[in-house]
């Protein structure tokens, strides 16, 4: 039976749709971002999570019909509390699970996504039934509910990447939206107190859930630190979430390590092997080089090696993340690792997307050091593509050299030789080589030049800790278990390199 209620109550129900739509999409984005951050392959993670979430919403919408008309508001409050609790805790639970016992992570991820999706799927049908019982015209009911539902989704889709994820982090964002869901429940309890059953019990449950979420929000940093301690093992001396990535720096005795999105970038105990192998086979062969371009390399360690050459007059470092270059410029323990290289007068630091900067800049360079993280995502994979290498080539002298860090030719051979094929696709001559870095294992690099006839150095003018004539000669020899593979180049429309990289590493990571 329909009852005539206050118009204000209708507006409150409509406004609730805006909030619950925002929260529902937020939990979906958190799950997608969390799984991409921890598992890689963002397209696969987001695609499967969105599919699971939408399917679960359909299941929830179906089961909403079994709620009796006189229980609609009571069940709506119960669902808000359940969504707030599960969704609010989801990021923290998933992160802790992955950090301390990674095996059940995928199962737990999809169970939580399904539960949240099913509960969210019940919300809007229940609100529409509540409005219908208040003599709302069907056309007005549908248009208002869907309008505010879509507006809520728009709001959070803009706030999540621009504000929430980079400044609050995924864990704290989860708790925030959980509190918003519980807030809707409390609001509904107060406004419709005359119609709800077991008012006191629901109010106390709502307060208890809100208390848990507020406590979690306040303790988010401690939980993240505890989880990262389980993930990395060593003491965390610096961590930050930027709009681009998660940076974590750890220390154990004399070993300082940098992790980006959970992946090791260097260990101070053996990084000299990596950076000597990256820089010196290039610059030793170019005694005339005056201008050097570094793409990536925001830790300044490759820059440290470049600046050892007195004939180098200027180095341009293009790194996307200002937080990275700032940390390795201003933090004494990190600046010490790169010999305060960012403070050298010969250095210009540009915090920008490398591809955009190359398109908009006309400078030419004698050498280019390309030191990006591994192509573990499509955002990184574009930096290993045919169009990107073609851009780098246009900024390189005809007799100049570039070198690309190219993941492991032993652990990821298909990815490694895909990078080689991509460089050759843009008309470059290539010289693949590898070096053993204890923290990484066998690691690969590829030298390339438009016209130079390159020969590996037989001696070095500067003193080295790792390189000499013998180690250099061995770097350019590939044993039988690392022979070249015929791979297609990495193009933007397919990003085959990212798939090859994921498949290669999945075969060796336990």
3D architecture notes:
With 510 residues, the protein is α/β, with parallel strands linked by helices. The chain has 17 helices and eleven strands. It has helices spanning 7-39, 42-63, 72-100, 105-132, 138-191, 199-218, 220-232, 271-283, 301-306, 322-330, 332-335, 354-360, 378-381, 386-394, 413-425, 469-475, 496-506; strands at 235-241, 246-252, 255-260, 263-267, 291-296, 314-318, 347-350, 365-371, 396-405, 429-437, 441-449. The longest helix has 54 residues, at 138-191. 46% of the residues are buried.
For the largest sheet, list the strands in their spatial order: 7-6-5-8-9-11-10
Order of helices and strands: HHHHHHHEEEEHEHEHHEHEHHEHEEHH
Q: Helicity, in percent?
A: 55-70%
Q: What structural category characterises the helix and strand content?
A: alpha/beta
Quick structural summary:
This protein is α/β, with parallel strands linked by helices and 510 residues long. The protein is built from 17 helices and eleven strands.
């Amino acid at each position: 039976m329909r009852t005539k209620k206050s118009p204000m109550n209708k507006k409150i129900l409509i406004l609730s749709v805006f909030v619950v739509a925002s929260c529902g999409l937020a939990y979906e984005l958190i799950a997608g971002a969390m799984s991409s951050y921890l598992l890689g392959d963002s397209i696969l993670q987001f695609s499967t999570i969105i599919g699971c979430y939408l399917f679960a919403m359909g299941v929830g919408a179906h089961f909403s019909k079994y709620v009796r008309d006189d229980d609609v508001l009571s069940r709506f409050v119960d669902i808000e509390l359940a969504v707030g609790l599960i969704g609010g805790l989801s990021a923290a639970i998933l992160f802790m699970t992955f950090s301390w016992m990674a095996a059940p992570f995928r199962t737990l991820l999809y169970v939580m996504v399904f539960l949240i999706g099913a509960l969210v799927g019940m919300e809007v049908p229940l609100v529409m039934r509540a409005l219908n019982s208040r003599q709302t015209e069907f056309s007005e009911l549908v248009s208002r509910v869907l309008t505010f539902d879509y507006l809520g989704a728009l709001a959070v889709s803009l706030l999540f990447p621009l504000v929430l994820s980079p400044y609050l982090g995924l864990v704290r964002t989860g708790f925030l939206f959980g509190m918003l869901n519980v807030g809707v429940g409390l609001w509904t309890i107060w406004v419709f107190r005359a119609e709800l059953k077991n008012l006191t019990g629901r109010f106390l449950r709502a307060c208890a859930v809100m208390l848990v979420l507020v406590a979690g929000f306040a303790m988010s940093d401690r939980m993240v630190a505890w989880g990262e301690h389980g993930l990395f093992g060593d003491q965390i001396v610096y961590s930050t979430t930027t709009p681009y990535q998660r940076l974590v720096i750890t220390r154990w005795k004399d070993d300082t390590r940098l992790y980006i999105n959970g992946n090791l970038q260097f260990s101070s105990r053996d990084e000299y092997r990596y950076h000597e192998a990256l820089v010196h086979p290039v610059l030793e062969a170019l005694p005339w080089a005056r201008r050097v371009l570094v793409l990536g390399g925001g830790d300044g360690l490759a820059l440290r090696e470049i600046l050892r050459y007195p004939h180098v007059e200027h180095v341009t470092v293009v790194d996307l993340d200002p937080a990275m270059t700032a940390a390795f410029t201003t933090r004494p323990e990190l600046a010490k690792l790169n010999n305060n290289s960012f403070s050298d007068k010969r250095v210009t630091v540009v915090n920008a997307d490398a591809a955009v900067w190359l398109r908009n800049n006309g400078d030419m360079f004698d050498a280019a050091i390309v030191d990006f993280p591994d192509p573990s995502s499509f955002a990184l994979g574009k930096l290993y593509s045919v169009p990107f290498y073609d851009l780098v080539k246009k900024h390189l002298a005809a007799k100049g050299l570039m070198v690309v860090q190219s993941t492991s030719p032993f652990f990821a051979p298909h990815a490694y030789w895909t990078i080689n094929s991509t460089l050759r696709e843009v008309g470059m001559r290539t010289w693949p080589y590898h070096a053993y870095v204890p923290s990484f294992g066998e690691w690969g690099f590829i030298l390339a030049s438009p016209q130079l006839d390159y020969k590996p150095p037989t001696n070095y003018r500067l003193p080295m800790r790792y390189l000499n004539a013998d180690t250099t000669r061995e770097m350019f020899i590939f044993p039988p278990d690392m022979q070249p593979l015929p791979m297609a180049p990495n193009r933007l429309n397919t990003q085959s390199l990212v798939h090859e990289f994921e498949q290669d590493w999945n075969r060796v990571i336990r």
